[in-house]
Automatic annotation (TrEMBL):
PROSITE patterns: GP_PDE (PS51704). Keywords: Signal. It comes from Nitratireductor aquibiodomus. GO terms for biological process: lipid metabolic process. GO terms for molecular function: phosphoric diester hydrolase activity. Residues 48-320 form the GP-PDE domain. Pfam families: GDPD. Transmembrane segments: none annotated. It comes from the Bacteria. This is Glycerophosphoryl diester phosphodiesterase. InterPro entries: GP_PDE_dom, PLC-like_Pdiesterase_TIM-brl. Residues 1-24 form the signal peptide.
């Protein structure tokens, strides 16, 4: 009878020890790097979000005048402590990339139509603060403040020669990955500006194929990485989708990953990958939640080494530098 239970007990004990976080070596000097999502921007309530929701129409009362994806907001993000600024791109009809989140112009600007069906000169005439309201349209506090402020990706790289950026492809058109590769090939001094790419799987795959040593992840690949690891990581197996890339991890899903945090981190390092710690995700809100409030700093493990995603760099940047003394 004892032997009958001894083998399963030894197996479970071995499985536990093989995946024990406390037995994994923690980084001697944890390096916590901040990714500022959309730079300093107007945040909004996330209840009942859909792909068609105009988020500019549901912002909180503004506490500052910065507008997402503009050069002033990026400057403010870096000054607040961002190591990387996330930005969104759309190709223009004249062969450039416009830095703009939305697929269409109607929500946030005084323009209309699909963003990518315009040339850059036309987009630069728009007011990117036109549509923001915190009171259901009674007032528009940023209207007139964003005229001419939609930058091209070229503008961004020229303005921040030492900055680093996470580039979000908003479509599934592989040609965008090819276009980015051509842009960097023609301007090799900008290659270090691009930390990584993410978004649509097809342009991400094409950009990684064309640009040497470029990390990147698409939505499907990221989900497959975490799903396969959650199912099979007990064995030490690291899926191909988790290798040589960035691995986005929602904070509330992290405890389900074998060996979280230290053993998981060690396995990702050995696979050539770094982790992006996101905020808690849910079925109702699977989007770009981040570590956005001071009480969420507890979601960052003491020995975490990787990227921390935030929508509130102006709050989290200064607080994180103070609250985590091991940060260099």
């Amino acid at each position: 009878m004892r032997k009958r239970f001894l083998l399963p007990l030894l197996t479970l004990s071995g499985l536990y020890l093989w995946n024990a976080s406390w037995l994994a070596d923690a980084p001697e000097t944890p390096e916590r790097l901040l990714i500022s999502h959309r730079s300093v921007h107007q945040t909004y309530h996330r209840q009942n979000l859909t792909a068609e929701t105009c988020t500019a129409e549901r912002i909180y009362p503004p506490q500052h005048a910065f507008i997402e994806n503009t050069l002033p907001s990026m400057k403010a993000a870096f000054e607040a402590g961002a190591d990387v600024v996330e930005l969104d791109v759309h190709p223009t009809t004249d062969g450039l990339f416009a830095v703009m989140h939305d697929w269409t112009l109607d929500c946030r600007t005084d323009g209309s139509g699909v963003t990518r069906t315009h040339d850059m000169a036309t987009l630069k005439k728009l007011d990117v603060g036109y549509g923001y309201t915190a009171d259901g349209g009674k007032s528009f506090p940023l209207r007139g403040r964003g005229v001419g402020m939609m930058p091209s990706l070229r503008d961004v790289f020229e303005r921040f020669p030492e900055g680093r950026f996470l580039v979000n492809f908003k479509s599934r058109d592989a040609k965008e990955g090819l276009q980015l590769a051509g842009m960097l090939a023609a301007n090799p001094q900008w290659r270090d500006r691009v930390l990584a790419v993410y978004g649509g799987d097809e342009p991400v795959v094409e950009a990684k194929r064309q640009i040497a040593d470029l990390p990147g992840y698409g939505k499907k690949g990221a989900m497959k990485c975490l799903g396969l690891y959650a199912a099979l990581g007990w064995s030490g197996y690291v899926p191909a989708e988790c290798r040589d890339t960035l691995v986005p991890v929602p904070a509330n899903f992290a405890p389900w990953l074998w060996g979280w945090p230290n053993r998981f981190q060690a396995r990702m390092r050995e696979a050539g990958s770094r982790i992006i710690l996101l905020g808690p995700a849910s079925l109702d809100d699977p989007g770009s939640t981040g570590i956005d409030s001071l009480d969420q700093l507890d979601l960052i493990p003491p020995d975490f080494s990787g990227y921390v995603w935030t929508n509130r760099i102006e709050t989290i940047g200064p607080a994180l530098r103070v609250s985590l003394p091991s940060q260099p």
